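Lay summary

Proteins are chains of building blocks that fold into shapes. Our project writes down both the chain and a compact code for its shape. Here are two examples, one after the other.
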Amino acid sequence: MALSGKIAALGDIMQLAFVPEDFDAAVAHWTQTMGVGPFFLIEGIHLDSMKYRGEPTDAVFDLALAYWGDIQIELIRPRDHHPSIYRGEYGATGNGLHHVCILVDDIAEARRVCAEAGAEVVIEGTFGTSGVIYVDAGGGPGTLVEILQQAKDGPDLFGMIKAAGVGWDGSEPLRKLG
């Protein structure tokens, strides 16, 4: 079966994301046991025009990003109980995978491909001039796909985080951004 027109054809997985029940223990595991880091913490994120299942939501969350080679590792900590993919049916996954992320150049085309594949947009919003949707392709927990169209007008945040991990000596395993 050809992959064109399927979600996998939109791009390669660039991120593995987790919503651990114990955020600090997850940071310690990834940095001390796995040797991945440093993680960069961004606190108090609320997407502009954020919708969960088509309805506005005021959900706020923190995230920490690091790189394991070319794969980004994201750890997410929900800050409240507003409807989101970080609570309820999609909530904390213990130490299991919550979602993967792919980067696209055209979020509208990605949305069309996902709709044709029967994937439901469960959360969407913008962060500056970046646009994001999370889709549930019907596979259950751990199979959400984040589709991100990054802003082209800002600094290369992912590049900076990746560069910090090259030859990282284990110091300052969790660093605050913003």
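And here is the second example, written the same way.
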Amino acid sequence: MMTSPISIQTTPSLLMPGDMYRALPRVSNSDLTRLKEEHLGYWSTPSARFIPEKTKVFGRAFHQHLLEPETVGTVLSQFLPDMIDSSNQVDPNKLAPSQAKQLQALMQTIRQDAFCRRYLRLSERERIVLSTEPTTGIACKARLDMVYTSPKRRNALIIDLKTTSARTQAQFLESCYTYDYDRQAAFYVDNLRHADNGEWDTTRQFRFVFIGVMKQRPYRLFAVDATSIPGFLDYGRKKYRFWLRKWQEEQAQPELMVPAWSMSA
């Protein structure tokens, strides 16, 4: 069975390196994705498992540059060692010119947008939230790109950044359903609602906004307010609770070997 929630206070990820977060014996949204893939088959639904490694690295680099610029040298040295100079800094001369130009364009697009610029300044970035899902008692974890809580804690806004190949708002919205972003949004919102340290217990309103930035010219931005779409979070909540119960059932069967990823991020 799942171990009881460990007594670690909700903390900014700057105080908890990625490997420590992944080692927490809690279930993440990524775990549910892997569980779904194993049950339905890797080829039955779009899967990050088959995204080219260069694409994955670029997405990680984008998030690191934007959300955790102070860790860029350290993190990129793990992914792209040839990009790092002797002082452990990113060497722009070792970036492929097309990659460097693309990354700079995406960063500029985000930072020139008034909404993004405001919440990049006001939000906690890469915030870790530990919670206990009330219907199953399972200890969960989430790492949020950006979360803003109003001064009196009455409102909370979660922002999740996505690079996308979509070229229209409609295509980006469609991708939110294709890639289970409804499940992610519900999982993250409920992690705040049920945070183990009670930080958002008095919060009245939770909003979740996806920001998509085109990976190709003209590098447009798309925004989807997940909480404003009728049924979006409700359907996502049904999804994640279904897979949590499936995960719980597997833990209760001692004859089955616990998947190695069950303790990963």
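What can we say about the second shape? Strands lie at 124-132, 139-149, 155-164, 205-214, 221-225.
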